[in-house]
Amino acid sequence: GESVGLHLPTLSVQEGDNSIINCAYSNSASDYFIWYKQESGKGPQFIIDIRSNMDKRQGQRVTVLLNKTVKHLSLQIAATQPGDSAVYFCAEMTGTYKYIFGTGTRLKVLA
Amino acid sequence: DTGVSQNPRHKITKRGQNVTFRCDPISEHNRLYWYRQTLGQGPEFLTYFQNEAQLEKSRLLSDRFSAERPKGSFSTLEIQRTEQGDSAMYLCASSLKAGEPTDTQYFGPGTRLTVL
Questions:
Q1: How far is CA A64 from the centre of its chain?
Q2: Reading across the β-sheet that carries B65-68, which strands appear in turn?
Q3: Would strands A105-110 and A10-14 be described as parallel, antiparallel, or unpaired?
Q4: Which residue out of B103, B106, B114 would a mutagenesis test of the A interface target, given it has the greatest number of A Cβ atoms within 10 Å?
Q5: How would you write the pLDDT of chain A (111 residues) with one tens digit per residue?
Q6: Looking at CA atoms only, how far is residue A60 from chain B in angstroms?
Q7: CA end-to-end span of chain B, whole Å?
Q8: Cα–Cα distance for residue pair A69/A62, rounded to 1 Å
Q9: Which residue of A has its CA nearest to B6?
């Protein structure tokens, strides 16, 4: 069935290093992808999105890469900071409204 | 604050009781969504509204669950005869309708339900 999954449940990085969080999706018809950050006890916070007609999109310190050939999505965080510690979810949109989320990757930033 | 708001933030109830949660979306958003999230998992879609019309319900939404959006603004999610398996974070999100510049859903802080 349709699914969105993440390769690594926990990622630990040194403060100041770059982080890369990966995600695989299975629905080749999905045309919109989003990354969310979720801190403990809070709702998901939008980080960055990308449509299927693009392969890269940059924001402030974050970059999302989309490889439709292998159905792979990644989130790159530059110069990771302690405030980046959270669980990160990717989601794909099927149809016109429904998001399918993966199980999340916990990012731990080490001082 | 013009984000999505949810009330209450926490609810503890005994098994068999009814609970109701409220969501106030971003004011210009006409789509509203409910999700459920259990520990360590991503949110799972429950239902969504376009204005006051409920257009889809997930199989996860048993007949004990009912959602309304009577005036196309705030929404309520009611769970009747709660069970321990209903314990989860209930998230609300809103977005602009299709055809607008973005399909981004913005989430509220959630209501954490604990059923004893």
A1: 7
A2: B5-7, B19-24, B75-79, B65-68
A3: parallel
A4: B103
A5: 344 544 448 999 999 999 999 999 878 889 899 999 999 889 999 999 999 999 999 999 999 999 999 999 999 999 999 999 999 999 998 776 788 997 789 999 998
A6: 18
A7: 33
A8: 22
A9: A43
